[in-house]
Model the fold of this input.
Amino acid sequence: MTRRLLWLLGLLVASSKVTAAQDSLPLATLDRDVAMRLTRIVDSAGSRGLPTEPIVAKISQGVFFHAAPDRIVVAAQSVVARLEEARVALAPKPTQSDIAAGENALGVDGVTKTALQAIRSTSPNRPVAVPLGLLAQLVASKVPLARATKIVTDLIKRGASDPQLLALGNNVSADVVHGAQAMASLDVRLRGLTAVLAPLGSAAAAVDGPQSAASGPGKKP
Amino acid sequence: MSDAERDPVLRRALDELRKLPPADVGAMRRVVNAAAAARVTPFDSDPGILTPRRGRSVRVWMVVGIAAASAFVGFALRGAWTSRSHAASTTAASGAPSTAPSIVRTAASTELDAAPVQQPFVFNNSRAHKVFVVGDFNRWDPTATPMTRSSDGELWSTVIPVVPGRHMYAFMVDDSLFTLDPNAPKTRDPDLGAEGSIIIVGRP
Done:
């Protein structure tokens, strides 16, 4: 009976695996050659330990928007390249969601591998999906990369939690949607956040400008 | 008496399985993704695989398979959690200083931080007949995530599990109208050039 049960469970898992594979790529509308190329891209990335969900999501997006097949292939290859770059930048032990967040950030015009490395070195033992999301969103909102990187790393150093980083990013985004300049919104929102955070070390505080992440109560005059 | 009742090992396993919490959607998604990533069957060996949507019988197998796999995952996690709790309580009881609890906590919190978060989406449109949310979190499937109309007919909303990070999304109104979220920043996809709304998701 035990063997029969194990066999049945094995069969169930195997069937879910095959079905998942069938459902993993929205290839029905693509020709066979393109579908094969995309499948190889996904399989190859997976075999190298990269998260495949961002690639599948990109392919799905291409299909959803009726993009040209060759463009979908190039887009998938670009995602793989960014995933590789993110994994290197977030070494030594990035989680799959870290790599995916790094890939997303690198997709924002202006975000660099160096910025990812700066965030990883500031937060070596914690997931960085939210800090990277904030960095990407700040840069996408036209905050210069150097400033955005410093803001995020300073906030991490001062012990800002993911919910606080999240609130900052979404509040600035909401302000921008309602017509505010990103920099102006950021300055106001940062003052509110830094007021409740621990002071930054004096070295970093001295480097910071009056409207930066370090301009909280801990900053010396 | 059935075989299951006679076999003590099987009986214990079944008892444990019966105590499991309800299947978690996030866990199911992780299992499906892991299964997809582990695929070894060459794509071109089965032309039928080109069709992502299958018939009902395959769906049933999928649901049963996912449920079984989720049960295994839940069982394994439960065992890990039990052993962690046991380790922590043992350390606390003995009073001996140890770094083990903090290591365990870091690993657990890391796992937790990367787990999907229940993310609400809200859209204001009183004239729509049906609204779906689409985005990278549901693979841009225009039928995957329907939104529910509020009682006053003004708002559409849904809450779905989304992994922490920055995500692109939009709303599909009445099956055909692609609409950005007026309350979220816009972005242009770097690879495809398509526009979408942006949200940063994290644990509240």
Q: What stands out?
A: Residues 56-94 of chain B form the longest helix (39 residues). Chain B has two domains: 3-114, 117-201. The mean pLDDT of chain B is 68. Chain B touches chain A through 66 residues (CB under 8 Å).
